[in-house]
Specification:
The chain is mainly β. Helices cover 8% and strands 38% of the residues. The structure holds zinc ion (ZN).
Length: 261
């Protein structure tokens, strides 16, 4: 088995909560009940055990991760204990920035944005779409890999089991809302309301097409459109303006829970 007991490991700083989310999948379902120890390091050399979870949990929120005031990159690694053998993972890091100077500038921009967003913005949950993982057995043809139906409740329409990573709570600003009125749905022919919103976001972690932004006041769920224009290039595109479209209430993404544990 070696060290490759985890796959799709993500380390996602949440600037809204001032925490860090870790998520992972297991390479082998027989490891589900194993113990997973989570270690953290400020320098990649000295490690501190921060918690122990059941491996199948798939996600962990590090509340000791002060993402807003960080002065150093944090590193994480995992130890899996299976039948009294110990396996050690590689090292994971939440951000890949070129230098401490760049990180300092990013921190400054993020802090300034957050001040505005906390007062004049909206509290949202961000659901990052899975782009790899175990193919959904209910809607993916195992032979061709083709998606067989659009609205699937097993994978929430993504083609991968569970579909989305655990929610990240944060703040955004609504820049623009456009109501296109009633249009005909391509499949059913039913009339549906088409509403588009442009959000200004802190682009860490990077948003991708298919990600979902949940307005926590109304539970309206907006999906990030495939084509994006990042207004603020350079410096890792820290701030982005995202075009999104409101999902219909019968979309499987509405069955995704927002609790993380
Ligand atoms: Zn499916």
């Amino acid at each position: 088995m070696g060290a490759a007991f985890l796959k799709d490991v993500r380390v996602i700083p949440s600037y809204g909560n001032n925490t860090c989310y870790l998520s992972w999948d297991l390479t082998d379902s027989r490891l589900s009940s194993s113990t997973l120890r989570i270690f953290k390091s400020a320098n990649g050399a000295e490690w501190q055990l921060i918690d122990e979870v059941v491996a199948v949990a798939g996600a962990y929120e590090d509340v000791t991760h002060n993402v807003r005031n960080r002065v150093a990159t944090y590193f994480y690694k995992f130890e899996l204990i299976h039948n009294s053998s110990v396996f050690v993972s590689e090292t994971y890091s939440p951000i890949q920035l070129d230098s401490l100077r760049e990180m300092g500038i990013v921190n400054f921009i993020v802090n300034e944005e957050l001040k505005y967003m906390r007062h004049g913005g909206s509290h949202v949950a961000v659901l990052k779409i899975k782009t790899s993982g175990t193919p959904c057995p209910d809607c993916v043809d195992p032979e061709t890999g083709q998606r067989l139906k659009e609205y699937c409740s097993t994978c929430h329409g993504t083609g991968y089991i569970n579909g989305y990573y655990p929610p990240i709570m944060t703040y955004v600003r609504i820049l623009n809302e456009k109501n296109e009125g009633l249009i005909s749905d391509n499949d059913s022919g039913a009339k549906i309301q088409k509403i588009e919103r442009t959000f200004r976001v802190i682009n860490i972690p990077f948003y991708e097409a298919g990600d979902i932004i949940v307005d926590l006041k109304t539970d309206d769920r907006y999906q990030v459109s495939p084509l994006q224009k990042f207004e603020f290039r350079g410096l890792s595109a820290v701030i982005a303006h995202l075009n999104t479209e409101l999902l219909n209430r019968d979309h499987p993404a509405y069955s995704l829970l927002l609790q993380t544990s």
